[in-house]
Amino acid sequence: MSRKFSEQEVVRRDKLEQLVKVNHNPFAISKVECTHTTAEFKEQYDVYSKEQLQGKPDVITIAGRIRALRTAGKAIFANVQDQDGQIQVYLRLDEVSKEEFLAFEQLDLGDIISVTGGAMKTQVGELTLRLVAFQLLSKALKPLPNKHDGLKDAEERYRRRYVDLIVNEEVKAVFIKRTQILNLIRQYLQTRDYLEVETPVLQPILGGATAKPFKTHHNTLDMPFYLRVAPELYLKKLLVGGFEKVFEMGRLFRNEGMSAKHNPEFTAIEIYVAYQDMNFMMQLTEDLISYLVKAILPSNEITYDHQEINFRQWNKMSMVEAIKNVSGVEFNREMTLVQARKLAKEHNIILEKYQHTIGHIINAFFEQLVEKTLIQPSFIYGYPLEVSPLAKKSYSDERFTDRFELFIGGREYANGYSELNDPIDQYNRFEQQLALRDLGDEEANEMDLDFVEALEYGMPPAGGLGIGIDRLVMLLTEQSSIKDVLLFPHMRIKK
After folding, report:
1. What pTM, to 2 d.p., does this model score?
2. Contact 233, 448 (CB under 8 A)
3. Is the distance from CB of 262 to CB of 482 less than 8 angstroms?
4. Does the residue 367 lie in any domain?
5. Do 128 and 254 reside in the same domain of the chain?
6. Is residue 22 part of a domain?
7. Which of 58, 87, 240, 375 is spaced 20 to 30 Å from 18 by Cα?
8. Element (H, E) at 457
9. Cα-atom radius of gyration of the chain, to the nearest Å?
10. 425 in a domain, yes or no?
């Protein structure tokens, strides 16, 4: 397939061709021995005055990408950027050979080089590397976006994230912070004796969450598999096996719509603790997020999506209480399905065909009227039995379960409950899920007899928790779209 090149691209390819002809192919270089990163260079030498640096014999080598290049008579200034940041480098004609000086002049923005020299400060006090030698390590055959326009188009930023990371320092900072958040979560749990485990991504049965899956097929086994929508059932099998505090952080896959809050592939953590309940998991959620807030944010208060959020204030209320506060509808009282449907119609609640019980109607009221009003960190508990196939019944009112979700800024961040460990009840719940699938609910769980059998060996009472990592990173880095915290978000094919 023939390719068309811009004028700049043709010039850069010609330069590469000339370098190869004189045996200076930059792509033949495999390794560079650097003494410092840009951050280490600044930390070590910025404390010295201009006069003190003049007497230092240290030889420093740094590698990175050229981000600025300007000639001033018999001197050349350039900015070199590595992962940590940028430094200025300075080259004088009377300190290197004419050939080297001219070769440096022929470099382009975006080229990757190593620079060797000593530390100095300019007349204005800027720490600079005074070059005695350099080496071209990789020729950039495409020009970077210009300094003023940058890479501003959102679609192009996501499609060419590698360019986005080069030209937008604030974008790189978000992803460095994302890694810090993941490391802090692991640190928090591991210091409290939680065991990190790995469970299958390819699963033969749809379960662990109500979600529409991706399907695939294994040729050798000649059987269908799902990309996991959740690791829950495998993790609870580990509780049966005797582990008491486990967690898994990894990718989940849901074949659902895309939005500022949803990507078909995302990261979540699930945590399970034997001999604990919903209340313990709520406290664990609050403690973990508070720990992250303290480590990542300058204060306990942030402005996110134009909303003031205070992490000192954590609210708790039942789902029916939250619905009553917003709509005035009282679902704690006894009512018939006909009465519940009438209330839904009066409040313009949209119901799917499979949402055919009072529990489904209560959940629809909550999702359509209440969620968006929960700005401060709020735990909502007491979810209807019909929408909680893996949670333990609330034995004070068996219409509901000991399940909670955490909402911040009108978005869900965590889901947890007292785990259902009754194998007979679990079998019946799976059968109810199959009935929902027959009515058109593509997110309903399948019958997992292996999991039921595991419960028949005995699973201790336990609490479980799932947290969406991407949304949490969005919150803590103040990003409005999930694409801004995913290095390579999924996009339509560009036509």
Report:
1. 0.91
2. yes
3. yes
4. no
5. no
6. yes
7. 87
8. none
9. 29
10. yes
19, 131 contact by CB (below 8 A):
no
Q: What is the CATH number of the domain that holds 274?
A: 3.30.930.10
Number of domain units in the chain: 2
How buried is residue 360: exposed, middle or buried, by Cβ count under 10 Å (0-12/13-18/19+)?
buried
Which pLDDT does position 447 carry in this prediction? Answer: 85
Both 265 and 400 in one domain: the answer is yes
152: left (phi over 0), alpha (psi -120 to 50) or beta: alpha
The candidate with the shortest Cα–Cα distance to 208, out of 232, 228, 225, is 232
Is the domain of 31 the same as that of 68?
yes
Domain residues for 125?
7-144
Last residue in a domain, options 82, 113, 144: 144
> Where residue 434 falls among pLDDT bands split at 50, 70, 90?
confident
Compute the distance between CA of residue 272 and CA of residue 284 in angstroms, rounded to an integer: 11
pLDDT band at 368; cut points 50, 70, 90? very high
Query: Which CATH number belongs to the domain containing residue 50 in this structure?
Result: 2.40.50.140
- Are 184 and 138 contained in the same domain? no
Of 111, 144, 177, the residue at which a domain comes to its end is 144
Residue 474 pLDDT greater than 90, yes or no: yes
Q: Do residues 135 and 205 both lie within one domain?
A: no
Helical pair 232-240 and 449-456, crossing angle rounded to 10 deg: 20
| pLDDT 10s digits, 95-114 | 999 999 999 999 999 999 99
Write the DSSP symbol of residue 393. Answer: B
Q: What is the arithmetic mean of pLDDT over 266-293?
A: 98
Residues 293 and 428 reside in one and the same domain: yes
Reported as a single tens digit per residue, the pLDDT across 121-160 is 999 999 999 999 999 999 999 999 876 566 677 888 899 9
Residue 164 contacts residue 151 (beta carbons within 8 Å):
yes
> pLDDT tens-digit profile of 49-72?
999 999 889 999 999 999 999 998
Structural domain includes residue 461: yes
417: burial class by Cβ within 10 Å (0-12, 13-18, 19+)? Answer: buried
**How far apart are alpha carbons 490 and 470 in whole angstroms?**
14
Do 137 and 16 share a domain, yes or no? yes
Tell me which residue of 365, 359, 382, 370 sits closest to 407, measured CA to CA.
370
Q: Which residues contact 428 (CB under 8 A, 6 or more apart)?
A: none
Query: Do 15 and 109 contact (CB within 8 A), yes or no?
Result: no
C-beta of residue 60 within 8 angstroms of C-beta of residue 130: no
pLDDT in tens, 5-16: 999 999 999 999
The answer to whether the beta carbons of residues 491 and 158 sit under 8 Å apart is yes
